Request: fold
Amino acid sequence: QVQLVESGGGRVQAGGSLRLSCAASERTFSNCDVGWFRQAPGKEREFVAAMTWNGDTAGYADSVKGRFTISRDNVKTTVYLQMNSLKPEDTAVYYCAARFLRGWSRLGSDYRYWGQGTQVTVSS
Reply:
């Protein structure tokens, strides 16, 4: 069982930056592929970014490519999402997710473990 806890959300003006963190409870997290997803009010959850267990490859949604960067520190069992040039449409609850050693995926249903989410609000 892997427990995930997100932090770093908040309110920021358009054009600003935030860094989200996702801390895992288990050392086995170093064997987990990880993803970030988000859900805005009244909308379905959508893929944001993901990375393999060793950080070898990563993928991004077109809407955040070039603005967001996923990274991880397996010693600290933490995954990060650096978000730059934020836009009001980035406003959502952001969730991190994990699964063991199957490669990263854009599908939320592929991930077994989820955090509780952290709110990001971008004002215009």
